[in-house]
Amino acid sequence: MWELFVRKTRLIIEDETLRSRVLFVLAALIVFRLLAAIPIPGIDAAALSTYLANNQFLGLLNIFSGGGFSTLSIMMIGVSPYITASIIMQLMTVLSPKLKTLYQEEGDAGRQRFMQYSRYLTVPLALIQGFGFLVLLQQNGIVPQLGFFHLLTNVFVVAAGAMLIMWIGELMTEYGVGNGVSLIIFAGIVAGIPSSLAQFAFAFDVAQLPAYVGFAAAAVVITAGVVFITEAERPIPVTYARRVRGMKVLGGVSTYLPLRVNQSGVMPIIFALSILLFPQMVASFLAQSSIPLVASVASAVASGLSNNWVYGALYFILVFVFTYFYTAITFEPNQIAKNLQKNGAFIPGVRPGQTTAEYLGNIITRITLVGALFLGILAILPIILQGLTGITALTIGGTALLIVVSVVLDVVKKIDAQTSIREY
């Protein structure tokens, strides 16, 4: 492992293009962390810390803000509006055949237009989320009561911060290494590690030393499992038919089509969180209503969702369902079968065309079951362990671990691709 790290570092240093891309990513992350340290005025830090500790969904939102929500910085909603806009656009491909064609069949130009629509949708979502969270925090005494002009100014500042961080993320994707939005979330998770270690050090109890050792061993096993499932794939053998052109014989080679077990990556967890965050935010907002019936219903919904076991059950179900949903959107067996047939390729023992599409569909349905169960269990694993052990200072698994592993593997693959281009 150490030799691999040294070799990658040496390649980055020697390759000028790769070195400039890595340095650009580091510079962009430094700018982001500096902006995330600029708070909006009048914050009660103690009340904010207590509120976040007792609120599950705001803690998850803090992950997707890159750590900006924990300080209520000008980046407090982070990339959350952009992710929500992307999710809405993905859902719209199911309802709109034009958008589906634009996203799946019109190549890079179509995807660029599709992403532009996502950017347009991000603006109103950022304004709505900024206003909703500021009003919610005012009701809980974390932000002082603001007049209309000051509230409007803060909403525009927060929305502008969301658009700025979206722009920084896209610049990192274009001129850096890896996906910029994922790297921003990754940076926020990593930035919270020192404070988590400090919290653990203060809460350390010698009597629970066996539990800590068990946690450490389980963390290694779970991390290895995440890497294994993330990289796992089912190879489907593909053979190209022989074709004679003049004096040349083309084709006749065999390769394989890799079907990933976790085809959808981290997107189902993001989908599930977005669905869970919205009703909790609305319920918390309406709980302060002056209408008794509305306030009581909202309080009941908020208290029900704040129950760890209810929250965990809903979280698992949504992740499981969205894994199949997102896989169905991104993986088109009919299109793959059509492309194979056009290129004179076939799966041995399977007729080309519709039979191939059905064969691929059946396989992806079966292996997605493993991926869906894996994502669902991983998402609720911290809730299960905290409920069984009662130790809240340590958590294993969850969204943060999957994001960190996925981002690290993606960056390593991008660096390998760059170095392979350089070698050839």
From TrEMBL:
InterPro entries: SecY, SecY/SEC61-alpha, SecY_CS, SecY_dom_sf. The chain crosses the membrane at residues 21-43, 63-96, 117-136, 148-169, 181-203, 209-229, 269-289, 309-329, 363-385, 391-412. It is a multi-pass membrane protein. The central subunit of the protein translocation channel SecYEG. Consists of two halves formed by TMs 1-5 and 6-10. These two domains form a lateral gate at the front which open onto the bilayer between TMs 2 and 7, and are clamped together by SecE at the back. The channel is closed by both a pore ring composed of hydrophobic SecY resides and a short helix (helix 2A) on the extracellular side of the membrane which forms a plug. The plug probably moves laterally to allow the channel to open. The ring and the pore may move independently. Component of the Sec protein translocase complex. Heterotrimer consisting of SecY, SecE and SecG subunits. The heterotrimers can form oligomers, although 1 heterotrimer is thought to be able to translocate proteins. Interacts with the ribosome. Interacts with SecDF, and other proteins may be involved. Interacts with SecA. NCBIfam families: 3a0501s007. Belongs to the SecY/SEC61-alpha family. This is Protein translocase subunit SecY. It comes from Candidatus Kaiserbacteria bacterium RIFCSPLOWO2_01_FULL_54_24. The gene is secY.
